[in-house]
Amino acid sequence: MINKSLPNLFTIGNLCMGMLAILFIFNNKPELAAFMVILAMITDGLDGKIARALNVQSDFGRELDSLSDVISFGVAPAFIMYVVLFQDIQPTIVGLFATAIFPICGAVRLARFNVVESQPGYFIGLPIPAAGAILSTIALFEAEFKPMVLVIITLLLSVLMVSNIKYPNFKNIHISRKHIWLLLLCIVLLLLSFLYFPEQCIMVILAVLCFYALYGLKKKK
Fold first, then answer.
1. Does the pLDDT at position 23 exceed 70?
2. Residue ranges per structural domain of the chain
3. What burial letters (b/e) apply to 106-128, b meaning 16+ CB within 10 Å?
4. Which of 111, 160, 195, 212 has the highest CB neighbour number within 10 Å of its CB?
């Protein structure tokens, strides 16, 4: 019973992190909000691997995962960028459009993922966890960019999610049952590093995710 529930608990954890991100950003805590999205990305990456390792995949788990992803990597990142920057953009319609289009494209991306058979070893379109984590973390560096640059980045990420560009799929990396707890230990150590070196960790994650997004563009060419 515990084995069957464990992956879904991680998926629910993903959803909880997304909700906390929304609450934090509306309490003017963008750093904590972005951190919650990153935690959601970690838990989202674990639920599927654990389900495959324990051989307890289910349609229920897949649907729950998609619904959670819309909140954690679509709605929450869009709200983070809106509160940090987009609500002050003139004309107002630009900020509203960029905020709305991101979760819409994310939802389309997830719906297509659930009904269209992907190619082995690849995702079609930028995965929404990567897009959401990029948008959330880059919002923390809004002082380094002009507002319209961040609007363009938001729109670009939205287009990449619904594009036909191939991105490497790491889901097939096998994790045996006996290595699950070792993986969880590594996650705990990563979280501890965030507590002591939050800015450095965020910058590293942002750099890796941006490379992943740009790598897909290179492969397209």
1. yes
2. 2-220
3. bbbbbeebeeeeeeeeebbbbbb
4. 160
- pLDDT value for 84: 93
CATH topology assigned to domain 2-220 = Four Helix Bundle (Hemerythrin (Met), subunit A) (1.20.120)
pLDDT interval class at 174 (50, 70, 90): low
Residue 1 has pLDDT above 60, yes or no: no
The torsion angle over the Cα atoms of residues 140, 152, 41 and 211, rounded to 10 degrees, is: -100
H-only helix segments in 55-146: 59-69, 76-84, 92-115, 128-138
